[in-house]
Amino acid sequence: MKRSKRAEDDAGDEGAEGSGEDQALLAVLELGEAVIDGEEGDEEDHEARAEAALKRVAQDEHQARDADELEQATEDDEQHSRGIYRRMATVNKLIGWLSAGALLGLMAASLLAPSYLGWDNTAASGTALCECSKVTRDTASRLLGIQAESAAIGGVLFLIVGIVLVVRARNKAAPA
How many domains does the chain have? Predict the structure, then answer.
Protein backbone atom coordinates (compact mmCIF):
# COMPACT_ATOMS: atom_id res chain seq x y z
CA MET A 1 0.00 0.00 0.00
CA LYS A 2 1.33 3.44 -0.90
CA ARG A 3 2.00 5.61 2.13
CA SER A 4 1.39 9.31 2.10
CA LYS A 5 4.12 11.79 2.91
CA ARG A 6 2.37 12.72 6.15
CA ALA A 7 2.14 9.09 7.23
CA GLU A 8 5.84 8.57 6.46
CA ASP A 9 6.77 11.68 8.47
CA ASP A 10 4.71 10.45 11.42
CA ALA A 11 6.27 7.02 11.19
CA GLY A 12 9.75 8.53 10.95
CA ASP A 13 9.22 10.63 14.10
CA GLU A 14 8.20 7.69 16.25
CA GLY A 15 10.82 5.38 14.81
CA ALA A 16 10.47 1.66 14.77
CA GLU A 17 8.88 1.49 18.19
CA GLY A 18 5.36 2.61 17.11
CA SER A 19 2.46 1.15 19.00
CA GLY A 20 -0.40 -0.73 17.42
CA GLU A 21 -2.73 2.20 17.95
CA ASP A 22 -0.38 4.45 16.04
CA GLN A 23 -0.25 1.97 13.22
CA ALA A 24 -4.04 1.88 13.05
CA LEU A 25 -4.20 5.67 13.10
CA LEU A 26 -1.69 5.84 10.26
CA ALA A 27 -3.72 3.36 8.23
CA VAL A 28 -6.88 5.48 8.70
CA LEU A 29 -5.05 8.65 7.67
CA GLU A 30 -3.64 6.94 4.62
CA LEU A 31 -7.08 5.64 3.71
CA GLY A 32 -8.58 9.17 3.97
CA GLU A 33 -5.88 10.63 1.75
CA ALA A 34 -6.36 7.80 -0.76
CA VAL A 35 -10.10 8.55 -0.90
CA ILE A 36 -9.40 12.26 -1.49
CA ASP A 37 -6.89 11.45 -4.24
CA GLY A 38 -9.40 9.04 -5.81
CA GLU A 39 -12.13 11.67 -5.82
CA GLU A 40 -9.83 14.23 -7.47
CA GLY A 41 -8.98 11.64 -10.15
CA ASP A 42 -12.67 10.89 -10.59
CA GLU A 43 -13.41 14.60 -11.09
CA GLU A 44 -10.68 14.90 -13.71
CA ASP A 45 -11.94 11.72 -15.40
CA HIS A 46 -15.52 13.03 -15.29
CA GLU A 47 -14.46 16.34 -16.85
CA ALA A 48 -12.55 14.51 -19.59
CA ARG A 49 -15.58 12.32 -20.30
CA ALA A 50 -17.86 15.38 -20.40
CA GLU A 51 -15.54 17.09 -22.88
CA ALA A 52 -15.41 13.96 -25.02
CA ALA A 53 -19.21 13.73 -24.94
CA LEU A 54 -19.49 17.36 -26.03
CA LYS A 55 -17.08 16.70 -28.88
CA ARG A 56 -19.14 13.67 -29.94
CA VAL A 57 -22.34 15.76 -29.83
CA ALA A 58 -20.66 18.42 -31.97
CA GLN A 59 -19.48 15.74 -34.40
CA ASP A 60 -22.96 14.20 -34.52
CA GLU A 61 -24.50 17.63 -35.19
CA HIS A 62 -21.95 18.25 -37.93
CA GLN A 63 -22.70 14.87 -39.51
CA ALA A 64 -26.45 15.53 -39.29
CA ARG A 65 -25.95 18.94 -40.92
CA ASP A 66 -23.87 17.31 -43.67
CA ALA A 67 -26.59 14.72 -44.21
CA ASP A 68 -29.24 17.46 -44.45
CA GLU A 69 -27.13 19.42 -46.93
CA LEU A 70 -26.59 16.27 -49.01
CA GLU A 71 -30.32 15.54 -49.02
CA GLN A 72 -31.10 19.13 -50.07
CA ALA A 73 -28.49 18.97 -52.84
CA THR A 74 -29.98 15.69 -54.06
CA GLU A 75 -33.48 17.21 -54.15
CA ASP A 76 -32.14 20.24 -56.02
CA ASP A 77 -30.39 17.97 -58.53
CA GLU A 78 -33.61 16.01 -59.08
CA GLN A 79 -35.60 19.19 -59.68
CA HIS A 80 -32.89 20.50 -62.00
CA SER A 81 -32.89 17.18 -63.90
CA ARG A 82 -36.68 17.32 -64.28
CA GLY A 83 -36.42 20.88 -65.63
CA ILE A 84 -33.74 19.87 -68.11
CA TYR A 85 -35.80 16.85 -69.16
CA ARG A 86 -38.85 19.08 -69.82
CA ARG A 87 -36.80 21.55 -71.85
CA MET A 88 -35.17 18.79 -73.85
CA ALA A 89 -38.56 17.19 -74.53
CA THR A 90 -39.79 20.55 -75.86
CA VAL A 91 -36.69 20.98 -78.01
CA ASN A 92 -37.11 17.45 -79.38
CA LYS A 93 -40.73 18.20 -80.33
CA LEU A 94 -39.71 21.41 -82.09
CA ILE A 95 -36.88 19.67 -83.96
CA GLY A 96 -39.39 17.05 -85.08
CA TRP A 97 -41.71 19.75 -86.43
CA LEU A 98 -38.79 21.51 -88.14
CA SER A 99 -37.61 18.29 -89.78
CA ALA A 100 -41.11 17.36 -90.92
CA GLY A 101 -41.59 20.80 -92.51
CA ALA A 102 -38.24 20.66 -94.27
CA LEU A 103 -38.97 17.20 -95.61
CA LEU A 104 -42.44 18.19 -96.84
CA GLY A 105 -41.04 21.34 -98.48
CA LEU A 106 -38.37 19.27 -100.23
CA MET A 107 -40.95 16.76 -101.47
CA ALA A 108 -43.26 19.51 -102.72
CA ALA A 109 -40.39 21.19 -104.58
CA SER A 110 -39.35 17.88 -106.15
CA LEU A 111 -42.89 17.27 -107.39
CA LEU A 112 -43.77 20.79 -108.57
CA ALA A 113 -40.44 22.30 -109.70
CA PRO A 114 -39.86 20.19 -112.87
CA SER A 115 -43.18 21.24 -114.44
CA TYR A 116 -42.58 24.86 -113.43
CA LEU A 117 -39.05 24.86 -114.83
CA GLY A 118 -40.26 23.24 -118.06
CA TRP A 119 -42.89 25.96 -118.48
CA ASP A 120 -40.43 28.73 -117.53
CA ASN A 121 -37.76 27.58 -120.00
CA THR A 122 -40.09 27.09 -122.98
CA ALA A 123 -39.50 29.58 -125.74
CA ALA A 124 -42.46 31.65 -126.72
CA SER A 125 -42.23 30.43 -130.33
CA GLY A 126 -41.83 26.77 -129.31
CA THR A 127 -38.52 26.27 -131.13
CA ALA A 128 -35.14 25.92 -129.43
CA LEU A 129 -33.07 28.96 -130.16
CA CYS A 130 -30.51 28.50 -127.33
CA GLU A 131 -27.63 26.32 -126.10
CA CYS A 132 -29.26 23.24 -124.65
CA SER A 133 -26.29 22.23 -122.37
CA LYS A 134 -26.25 25.62 -120.70
CA VAL A 135 -30.00 25.57 -120.27
CA THR A 136 -29.79 22.09 -118.73
CA ARG A 137 -27.13 23.18 -116.22
CA ASP A 138 -29.11 26.27 -115.31
CA THR A 139 -32.29 24.22 -114.95
CA ALA A 140 -30.66 21.66 -112.65
CA SER A 141 -29.10 24.45 -110.62
CA ARG A 142 -32.44 26.20 -110.27
CA LEU A 143 -34.12 22.90 -109.29
CA LEU A 144 -31.64 22.36 -106.46
CA GLY A 145 -32.02 25.98 -105.35
CA ILE A 146 -35.81 25.74 -105.33
CA GLN A 147 -35.62 22.50 -103.33
CA ALA A 148 -33.34 24.14 -100.72
CA GLU A 149 -35.57 27.22 -100.49
CA SER A 150 -38.69 25.06 -100.17
CA ALA A 151 -37.08 22.94 -97.44
CA ALA A 152 -36.16 26.12 -95.51
CA ILE A 153 -39.63 27.62 -95.92
CA GLY A 154 -41.32 24.37 -94.89
CA GLY A 155 -39.00 24.01 -91.90
CA VAL A 156 -39.70 27.55 -90.67
CA LEU A 157 -43.47 27.19 -91.17
CA PHE A 158 -43.65 23.88 -89.33
CA LEU A 159 -41.39 25.21 -86.60
CA ILE A 160 -43.88 28.03 -86.05
CA VAL A 161 -46.75 25.52 -86.00
CA GLY A 162 -44.82 23.38 -83.50
CA ILE A 163 -44.13 26.36 -81.22
CA VAL A 164 -47.80 27.34 -81.26
CA LEU A 165 -48.90 23.79 -80.41
CA VAL A 166 -46.32 23.40 -77.61
CA VAL A 167 -47.30 26.75 -76.06
CA ARG A 168 -51.00 25.85 -76.22
CA ALA A 169 -50.36 22.46 -74.61
CA ARG A 170 -48.29 24.08 -71.86
CA ASN A 171 -50.96 26.72 -71.18
CA LYS A 172 -53.65 24.04 -70.94
CA ALA A 173 -51.53 21.99 -68.50
CA ALA A 174 -50.52 24.96 -66.30
CA PRO A 175 -53.92 25.86 -64.73
CA ALA A 176 -54.68 22.25 -63.79
Answer: 1
